[in-house]
Design goal:
alpha/beta, Beta-Lactamase, Rossmann fold, 3 domains, eight-stranded mixed beta sheet, six-stranded antiparallel beta sheet, 13 helices, elongated, disordered N terminus, T4SS_GSP_E_ATPase, CpaF family protein
């Protein structure tokens, strides 16, 4: 009987795994259709028995811990998602990026790092990806070399293969938390401070129209999910998305998802179609996952026609660029009015723009809160209420702060909130005045 060659006194575990995998495939072929009816636990027991037998017969010098690892990896390969399985189950992983079979990058805490695990070859990548896509009914081959799909747990999968991807299959998986972050969670994580917390709470409760602006992976969806906690439980919310990602913690949510065109080019249902239909569904608020095309016109009309308190996200690097992008998208959509009338519609629809970003250290922070106040000289007027700053404390630690720029919200919707701010300011002034009076009394 041949024994496995030992390099440096120990066998190559990758080589062992490949040989055991080939042995298992041969055994599965013998079992035929029976194997397809087995549960995952039955498959794991089968793999354990076969691995132990193979190691003993081939006289491979590996210990019990290495055998258990082999069983786990091979079970994942036969019944699960191979190298992706542990990453998908890791709650700290935010993004999984596969750049060909030998390169897997993972984002944790907003920072990308290369993983030690990898696939065997590009066919291995495709086999695992097709296993993910099979229950979703999505096709991936040379005739359809690009696919975008929603995973059962709410995550998002994007795959590009040959001939579009030159260096092998490119897989991007965006994971979402099973328990969406609450506003209190974001406050504890340092995404904003208590003053911004109270402003956001008041703005959502008072049915202000809010647009969350930011770059890729800046936390726009997480913030939008968090804002839903401030929506009164008596309201009906309709969400519209290209790929359903939102998980609003609210008792009355209607989720709508766009549909891509079929193989014959027909059957497409766009976000714009869904927004138009949502207005016939008696919504109190319409929440658009991301504005990226012609739907910007319908979203503005919804905000301007009795659906106050609506919210959406958009890709932009600043509040001013956010407005420019909306104008550009409306122009691409064939907006028939003048530039001035479009700007007036935007100014009357929006109340606040929340700019969020991911800092170089990976932390996600609200960068500014800006109020849209109207039109002036053909330009949309805005005022910034809070702006993010960071500084180093005495111990050299970076500290975040959001100083108020001394301006109170202008909108009539927040008159009560404005009165509370004024009352608090008067109380502070009164306290300071008493302190000063006591000081001068003591001096006398």
């Amino acid at each position: 009987m041949n024994t496995m060659s030992i390099v440096g006194g120990a066998p190559d575990l990758m080589q062992v795994r490949e040989q055991v995998h080939e042995h298992l495939l041969a055994r599965i072929e013998e079992l035929g259709a029976e194997f397809g009816r087995w549960s995952r636990q039955a498959i794991q027991d089968f793999v354990g028995i076969e691995v132990a037998s193979f190691v003993r017969l081939q006289r491979i010098a590996i210990n019990e811990m290495e055998i258990r690892e082999l069983v786990q990896r091979l079970t994942q390969e036969l019944a699960g998602l191979g190298p992706l399985e542990d990453l998908l189950n890791d709650p700290d992983v935010e993004d999984i990026l596969v750049n060909g079979y030998a390169s897997i990058f993972v984002s944790r805490g907003g920072m990308l790092a290369k993983e030690a695990s990898q696939f065997t070859d590009n066919h291995h990548v495709l086999r695992i990806v097709r296993r993910i896509l099979a229950p979703l009914g999505r096709r991936l081959d040379e005739s359809v070399p690009m696919v975008d799909a929603r995973l059962p747990d709410g995550g998002r999968l994007n795959v590009v293969i040959h001939p579009l991807a030159v260096d092998g299959p490119m897989v991007s998986i965006r994971k979402f938390r099973k328990d969406p972050l609450k506003p209190d969670d974001l406050l504890q994580l340092g995404a904003f401070d208590e003053a911004i917390y109270h402003l956001l709470d008041s703005a959502v409760a008072a049915r202000c129209n809010i647009l969350i602006s930011g770059g890729t992976s800046s936390g726009k969806t997480s913030l939008l999910n968090a804002l839903a906690f401030f929506i009164p439980k008596t309201e009906r919310v309709v969400t519209v998305e290209d790929t359903a990602e939102l998980a609003l913690n609210h008792p009355h949510v209607v989720r709508l998802e766009a549909r891509q065109a079929g193989y014959d080019g027909g059957g497409e249902i766009t976000i714009r179609d869904l927004i138009r239909n949502s207005l016939r569904m008696r919504p109190d608020r319409v929440v658009v996952g991301e504005v990226r095309g012609a739907e910007v016109i319908d979203m503005l009309q919804a905000m301007n026609t009795g659906h106050e308190g609506s919210m959406a996200t958009i890709h932009a690097n600043s509040p001013r660029e956010c407005l420019y992008r909306m104008e550009m998208l409306a122009g691409f959509a064939g907006f028939q009015g003048s530039e001035d009338s479009l700007r007036r519609q935007i100014a009357s629809a929006l109340d606040f723009i929340i700019q969020i970003g991911r800092l170089p250290n990976g932390k996600r922070r609200v960068l500014s809160i800006t109020e849209v106040t109207g039109m002036g000289d053909g330009v949309i007027a805005m005022q910034e209420l809070y702006k993010h700053e960071s500084y180093l404390d005495a111990e050299g630690q970076e500290v975040d702060r959001w100083p108020s720029l001394g301006i109170h919200p202008h909108t009539r919707k927040l008159s009560t909130y404005r009165d509370q701010l004024n009352a608090t300011a008067r109380g502070q002034e009164s306290t300071e005045s008493k302190d000063n009076s006591s000081f001068w009394d003591w001096r006398r």
